[in-house]
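Good morning N.,

You mentioned wanting to compare the apo and holo forms, so I went ahead and generated the holo version with s-citryldethia Coenzyme A. This is what I fed in:
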Amino acid sequence: MSDSAKIQLNKFELDSRIITGSENEKGFDITKLRPTTGHITLDPGYGNTGACMSDITFIDGEKGILRYRGYPIEQLAEKCKFTEICYLLLYGELPNSNQQELFSQKIKKEQNIHEDMKRFFDGFPITAHPMAILSAMVTSLSAYHSDTDITNPDKIDNDIIRLLGKVKSFAAFSYRKSHGLPFIYPQPELNYVENFLHMMFSDAQENYETDPILAEALNLLLILHADHEQNCSTSTVRMVGSSQANLHATISAGISALWGPLHGGANQRVIEMLEQIRDDGGDYKKYVNMAKDKNSDYKLFGFGHRVYKNYDPRAKVISQAAERVLKALNVDDPLMDIAKNLEHIALNDNYFVQRKLYPNVDFYSGIIYKAMGIPTNMFTVMFALGRLPGWLSHWREMITDPKSKINRPRQIYTGPILRNVKPVGDR
Ligand code: SDX
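and this is what came out, ligand included:
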């Protein structure tokens, strides 16, 4: 919906439109700004800039609300399987039983990778970070499937299903490789989450029984990570995808963006921070003071958010799940106590309250991954596994939009003005 508007910018007047979203978010349409005024906007970090309109996910950062296609994240996490959420994000509705069965079967058919691709793992050092392996393997799919055709809906869906099937296998194989273990093949009778746990932890010498506690916890974590509108990695997917690069290269770019410690890489940094505090006598107040010290660039990983200026609704669900999982597994993890103490301080200390710094999605997730036996350097791979359907949904929404263009932001140049080259002897 849009209303006409006149925007007064200094001495300029711009005939514009105010775009109103379905949740009453409002934006100025400035598509005519430069041709009308000769000016552009400048918004480093894009905190005030909408890159697109999207039907997929709604966030209210002030109220701490997150919904996928209108459904509250809390209900989806409690009532759905991860593959149902993949379907919902991609196609806009929760699947009925037949649709769910067909969709799951299509993903299962894509779980195995080309036998030649297994040899790629021999080239990685055992110390390779699993995110390096994941992004390399996803890009390498382009070498086997270069027939992306964004004008063909069936091809679009085939590429999407292929990635939903294979990325889970790449993730499990990267773990097996780093532990010198043989790759485990998926089992047809297991669902997405059960197969991942089987491919990660099965022992070739004995039958693997899925622990329902771990399966339920992993299902919940994948759902909570599945999408988050225009975050850094999803915006990267939209940016790369806007050049009509093939989907494998596009998703690999998203994986690389997620790896950063300010984004998805934070979940690994949180556990490393909590372990550092534990090993330093548990003196969490010392680290809070370091984070508050203007002369230190130390940050409390897992706190703060570009959009949430309230408690991240995902962190609430994850912290409750962490308590449940630790209790059910009879694990007494001192990191949980340290995390709870840090949270208590952040919710009461003026430094954090003034800056609206609350625990985010990454703060408690690692405690569950750790209790499941997933190594710390795999945590961001787990984030990528969850976020994959979100990336794919935004790519699909963009690439099927007939008005979609290649993304090309402008800049304000501040470098040297025109000057002539002097011969090297005169410089
Ligand atoms: C994710 O965008 C998404 O949706 C991302 C995500 C998703 O699902 O895709 O939600 C996933 O990436 C969550 C965020 C994970 N990152 C971390 O936990 C890293 C630690 N957090 C910070 O780096 C920071 O909070 C950011 C990057 C998350 C947000 O940065 P902002 O909003 O740009 O805030 P800022 O850097 O401008 O900081 C504002 C103030 C500063 O102090 P002053 O200069 O005003 O005195 O808050 C301080 C900062 O120093 N601050 C922190 C802090 N985060 C911000 N101080 C201590 N510890 C922190 N974590």
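The chain has a mean pLDDT of 95.

Happy to go through it together on a call whenever suits you.

Best,
F.
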